Amino acid sequence: MNSPLAGRRVLVTGAAGRIGSVTTRHLTELGSLVTALTIVEDPELKADRVIVGDTRSEDDVAAALADVDLVVHLAALAHPSAGTPYDVYSTNVVSTFNVLAQAGALGVKRAVVASSINAFGVPFNPHGIRPAYYPLDEKIPSDVADWYSLSKQNDENTCRMAWRQWGIDVVSFRFPHVNSADVLQRMADGHAKNPAAGVREGWSYLDTRDAARAIELGLTASLSGAHTFFVAADTTNAPYETEILLDAFAPGVPRLRRFVGREVPMDLTAARTVLGFQAQYELDLPTHELEI
Ligand SMILES: NC(=O)c1ccc[n+]([C@@H]2O[C@H](COP(=O)([O-])OP(=O)(O)OC[C@H]3O[C@@H](n4cnc5c(N)ncnc54)[C@H](O)[C@@H]3O)[C@@H](O)[C@H]2O)c1
């Protein structure tokens, strides 16, 4: 069956990045005509149009948006240490504002935006705090203490503002750690030795191919408004039972329900029911006894 994205013109910002390159390929395979906006030249990048430019620049974004139907905004400095605090914060919030404001004013109907699990602040909070509860969900209280998390929280506000101002539907994804299967496996090996490292993200992860599929569904799902979704694989990236992990590393944190086996302690209901998303690429991990 033909994808509803076949023949649609989609702008992907950050198209040469980890998620952007896989998304550009995926959308192209579905028949979309992708305009790839990238700040770095990348000979590997195959798209209908490639524009080398900066998402902070009004002129570059205007050129990239010419004749575009849909937008996928992924460009960002994707970690607190990816630049100075000023660069990380200003690049991310200015880029998201610039892309959504111009797309909205042009009458683009839908954008998908990369937020982050870090929008709730706890994973990068330097004070060792734990989430307010498990499973993590879109309403969990935030405790932001770094500029990257703050930029992602503000990006979610920008998405809502753009919808209210211009009526552009926006799907933003609170991605957990997203990577290729081999890198995710190495991360799981690390969590086997040091499971405490994953507690604040609920040991969540997502294969890059699943991120691209979530983005496809974000572009096509029947919805209106500005909505934020957690997306992750159904299981954790630690080879221990989730209840045992939480007993050991988050003993005082309320659990709103019980978790079965290695079930990820993240509420994926919204992504499943509204977008029809379920991850297809999961790590094949054993379940060991936890020894601490
Ligand atoms: N990969 C993850 O684990 C993860 C998790 C949560 C959220 N995210 C978010 O998903 C998005 C994509 O992340 P990624 O892992 O592909 O990161 P990445 O660093 O591989 O890709 C981001 C791309 O944006 C580009 N970029 C940065 N500043 C730019 C600018 N001013 N103009 C144009 N392009 C610019 C970079 O050159 C890079 O190619 C980011 O918004 C990131 O914050 C990623």
CATH superfamily: NAD(P)-binding Rossmann-like Domain
Helix fraction by DSSP (H/I, runs of at least 4): 25-40%
- Helix tally equals 8
**Outline type:** globular
Strand order in space, largest sheet: 3-2-1-4-5-6-9
Terminus-to-terminus distance:
51 Å
- The strand count comes to 9
CATH topology: the name is Rossmann fold
The distinct bound ligands, ions and cofactors come out as:
nicotinamide-adenine-dinucleotide
Q: Sheet bearing the most strands, described?
A: 7 strands, parallel
User: pLDDT below 50 for ≥5 consecutive residues: which ranges?
Assistant: none
Radius of gyration: 19 Å
- Give the helices and strands as they follow along the chain: EHEEHEHEHEEHEHEHH
Q: In percent, how much strand structure appears in the residues?
A: 5-15%
**Broad structural category:** alpha/beta
What is the highest CATH level, the class?
A: Alpha Beta
- What is the total domain count? 1
